[in-house]
Amino acid sequence: MTAGEKSQVPAADATLRILSHLAAQRGPVPASTIATALGIPRSTVYHLLRVLQERGFVVHLPEEGRYGLGVAAFELSSGFSRQQPLTRLGSRLVEAMVDRLGESGHLAVLHGRDVLYLVEERAPRRPSLVSDVGVRLPAHLTATGRAMLAALPATQLRALYPDAAAFTSRRASETWTYARLKAVLAEVRRTGIAEEAGEVTGDLSSLGAVVLDHVGWPAAAVAVTFADDRVTDDIRAAIEAEVRGAAAELSRRIRGVR
């Protein structure tokens, strides 16, 4: 190893430690707190945070003087998901859930402001869904997306949706705002179940629940999609129970919070 290579190793190690530390927090934290927690000189922390911010791995909240994970960090998480661990662990759970309910189910992860579908299990004699494997949809419109967004700290949520341009809609008559999103997510947190009704595909609704990792971060979400006219209150209660159970079991399998 050359002298030049040696000088780069400590910086690489410190950078990874900063990212790991941020990933373990419930929300953005001050640079000084990072420096103290990791025993890294404050000037070095500020320098590395600036580089990470330029690359999109870190977002700076100037009004609060805090730093949190950026969209590029979510992309790394999604890359991990695309390499199969969550898919392999979750596919059997979704398949069993669909068999018991007779309704279609899926597993998705958060990818920036989108959800990326990893598993799609279609029930017999049920319509095809737009949420096929590899498809991305706006997170705020889907049950899986709302389940995961509701588990994010408020500061991270605001960083994802800084203004009106961050929102899209599949219905021309519909307008989304940050205030509306907060109200929707507050209900998700209250009930533990996320719902969307005809906002992705008309006449179809979905119920979803979040899969949390070991620090309580949304690793994925499980959902079931069904036709509104076929679902009674009893069937809906059964769907909610199955979705909650599948999400909790997947959280257990990845050693997450249940």
Automatic annotation (TrEMBL):
The keyword Ion transport does not apply. InterPro entries: ArsR-like_HTH, GAF-like_dom_sf, HTH_MetabolicPath_Reg, Tscrpt_reg_IclR_C, Tscrpt_reg_IclR_N, WH-like_DNA-bd_sf, WH_DNA-bd_sf. Residues 72-256 form the IclR-ED domain. Keywords: DNA-binding, Glycerol metabolism, Transcription, Transcription regulation. GO terms for biological process: glycerol metabolic process; negative regulation of DNA-templated transcription. Residues 9-71 form the HTH iclR-type domain. Pfam families: HTH_IclR, IclR_C. It comes from the Bacteria. PROSITE patterns: HTH_ICLR, ICLR_ED. Transmembrane segments: none annotated. SUPFAM superfamilies: GAF domain-like (SSF55781), Winged helix' DNA-binding domain (SSF46785). GO terms for molecular function: DNA binding; DNA-binding transcription factor activity. The keyword DNA-binding applies. May be an activator protein for the gylABX operon. This is Glycerol operon regulatory protein.
